[in-house]
Write a structure and sequence with these properties.
about 30% helix; single chain; 9-stranded mixed sheet; two-stranded antiparallel sheet; 11 strands; globular; alpha/beta
Length: about 325
């Protein structure tokens, strides 16, 4: 059942941006609010049959290769989307689930497979949201991995190393139904991945361990703490489908209709944000010269961040 508007979207900030990004947007919540409002403009143009990304005389559905082009009705980006931001990393602040229609988990420099209290609490809260059957969950990069852990999937280091800057991901048939495309170009900034799909059936949260996995180490399980809001499951959670993949990362996106949509990439990133991150990580010795130059060589490439975010909004309205 589609959610009513206005949509109350709680953005769970899992990290603090670097100084230039923070000066422009505040926190990562501001980055996502800017992106999602742009995606509403995109969807409204799609509703009118035109879009700045389409060739002259071509509808968005035709451009994207969609047979029917899942169009949505006209949205007011200021009135139909209501945002709040929550610092879950430092302050461990969370909204009551009954007060929101959706939660969005941002990216983070932290490892999603580690078990500090704020991460295990975030996992429990995310699972409680999924258990409601009403609150939609969107996860981006670290958030994608946290959502996967909340369902019992395994997350760890990618033995193939980093994906950085603009990269192409292949979209399968199910993913084309969400984004209308067979390929997406999206900013990446990760060396951790979702290694497995969750088990079938999805196990209860109380039975999950928070075992962490790296390329070389597995730590003993730690029971997750109580969620800030833990309603009883409304219905069993289906196993998510994979929507997209890339050679270094087979699970680029997870999807449960009307319940969960995640991406490993960063649709919210811009050339300026990624340039700042690449420079900072090179300065800190995280990236060597080769990886830095590889990322900078693609940082100005065209990317589909707004298209990916438009899929988020469609998901909220499906």
């Amino acid at each position: 059942m589609p959610l009513p508007t206005p949509l109350h979207i709680a953005i769970l900030e899992c990290d603090t941006p670097l100084p230039q990004t923070a000066a422009k947007y505040g926190g990562y919540g501001g980055v996502f609010i800017s992106l999602l409002r742009k995606s509403v403009d995109y969807l409204n143009a799609e509703h009118d049959g035109v879009n700045s990304g389409a060739k002259e005389g071509e509808t968005v559905a035709e451009k994207d290769g969609a047979k029917e082009g899942k169009k949505v009705g006209f949205l007011d980006k200021d009135k139909d989307l209501d945002f709040t931001t929550w610092d879950v990393e430092h302050l461990e602040q969370y909204p009551k689930l009954e007060d929101v229609d959706a939660i969005l988990l941002t990216g983070s420099r932290h490892n999603a497979f580690d078990n500090p209290p704020w991460i295990t609490r975030l996992i429990s809260y995310t699972r409680a949201a999924l258990d409601t059957g009403r609150v939609r969950v969107i996860g981006v990069c670290f958030g994608h991995q946290i959502a996967a852990r909340a369902l019992g999937a395994e997350v760890g280091r990618n033995e193939k190393g980093w994906e950085v800057s603009v990269c192409s991901v292949d979209v399968n048939g199910a993913g084309k139904g969400v984004w209308g495309r067979e390929k997406l170009d999206i900013f990446q900034m990760h060396r951790d991945i979702v290694l497995t799909l969750p088990p079938t059936p999805i196990p209860p949260l109380s039975t999950l361990s928070t075992t962490t996995t790296t390329s070389s180490t597995t730590h003993p399980p730690t029971p997750p703490p109580s969620s800030p809001s833990s309603p009883s499951p409304a219905s069993p959670i289906p196993t998510p489908s994979i929507l997209a993949s890339s050679p270094p990362c087979p699970i680029q996106s997870l999807y449960i209709p009307s319940r969960l949509l995640t991406v490993q990439g960063h649709p919210e990133f811009t050339e300026e944000i990624v340039t700042e991150i690449l420079a900072a990580r090179k300065e800190a010795g995280v990236f060597d010269q080769r990886l830095f130059e590889d990322g900078m060589g693609r940082v100005r490439d065209r990317h589909d961040g707004v298209v990916v975010a438009a899929g988020f909004v469609r998901f909220l309205l499906e």
